[in-house]
Q: What sequence folds into this?
DNA sequence: TTTT
DNA sequence: TTTT
């Protein structure tokens, strides 16, 4: 016993969430998240990007599939989990994922709406941010 | 002995940073930061805002005074410190502050530049974010 | 909108939790928590202690009242909340608290049992730690 | 750009740190860390352990090699990094590590001393905890 | 594979 | 491979 296993990320989705429905009816969503760090080396600005495998379960997966899309900036809180699997050649491999326990969209108001087909959105003012939290891991509205 | 004292905030500056230079030449900056939470009560969307007193020292204060302004969205990492002071009526009072150890601007590219007097900025595209990190607590460029 | 408000503490309880039952039957517990930091100044080891007001609600308050006592080492995750109140002289005052959302006892096995009146506890081996988590904010067993 | 990549762990070392000195004189240390979670399933207490690869650089590696040993309870703060390497069969593999930026021993006073060969240690009192922090990533004393 |  |  004795443990804290916590991950806090702010980054952009590299792809739309991929949603699967397991046999028991459980929903799982996953997507890659990029967190980038900028630092200075010999006067040049270097950007280093780290990619994370994000996994969400149940209600949180449902919310993610509805409100998160490729490119969005998101705060994610979760825990690390390394699991093994067999690839196509039956070789045992390991992958480390971040199992999300909570997420919040960081961005402008338009980022909080599910994408629509309609054109002609209202112009946005400079400082128009908003967010969406799902502390309970379930639908927030 | 034995202690972790860590605060993680993402919110908007309520005012421009207020910068002071202490006798020994040390720079201190401070500003209020709002973190808002939205939840559902009886079908209505309630927004609850919490205000935090942010304090930054030395190099981090210099960076803050240059790159942070009222309204900007920022990630702040720091620690809690409660200090006492005497108000004008000589009454002892307590205030809890977040002493920043690190911050990152979260927002669009324009948010990374110090404010300029020139008018006529270039139009921004929808999904234009960027950030600025100062892990070492000193000027990052 | 847009906010993350997160506090992570590891420290010792300064007192036993104080438990109150509100009118609606809701349980609230609170206790002071010390987080200490040791640093070096001119070759001398300086210890600086920060005190935090911890507040717990409902099921988490019940668990805390049962398993936490003065002196125990605990990991606490929560959020900052500043509230105002009137003191006995009707002066408006402010206090900043950490509203716990989760806690974990860090310590040896004996620290996980509610205190008993019986004497003569079993001797402990050198490296005997264990912990107790309450992720859901409710009774964990 | 735009990124926060933060990991917070509390767990026990599965092995003593393994220290290497790279060509340029840089020190790297690494060890496995176990974080365990206990939960209830059908009235049975289930313990699930997650293993993390911890990597420390430079001064932090030196401190770790001196003060951390197998079995000790430690708080670690760092960031995720996934790197690829070729195994003996020239197969490309990936491993995700936690690059530590800070650590603190959590435990009793005896846990803060480097291990000694002498026998006959002084008995410890019940509530004797202490800690050791290395915020700057360098030797703290 | 994101973002700037 | 830790810890209880």
A:
């Amino acid at each position: 016993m004795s443990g804290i296993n916590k991950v806090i990320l702010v980054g952009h989705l590299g792809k739309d969430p991929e949603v699967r429905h397991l046999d028991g009816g459980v929903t799982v969503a996953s997507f890659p998240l990029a967190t980038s760090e900028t630092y200075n080396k010999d006067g040049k600005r270097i950007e280093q990007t780290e990619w994370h495998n994000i996994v969400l379960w149940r209600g949180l997966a449902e919310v993610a599939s509805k409100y998160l899309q490729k490119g969005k900036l998101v705060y994610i809180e979760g825990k690390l989990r390394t699991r093994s699997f067999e690839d196509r050649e039956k070789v045992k491999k390991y992958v480390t994922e971040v199992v999300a326990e909570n997420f919040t969209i960081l961005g402008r108001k338009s980022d909080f709406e599910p994408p629509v087909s309609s054109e002609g959105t209202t112009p946005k003012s400079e400082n128009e941010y908003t967010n969406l939290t799902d502390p309970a891991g379930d639908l927030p509205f």
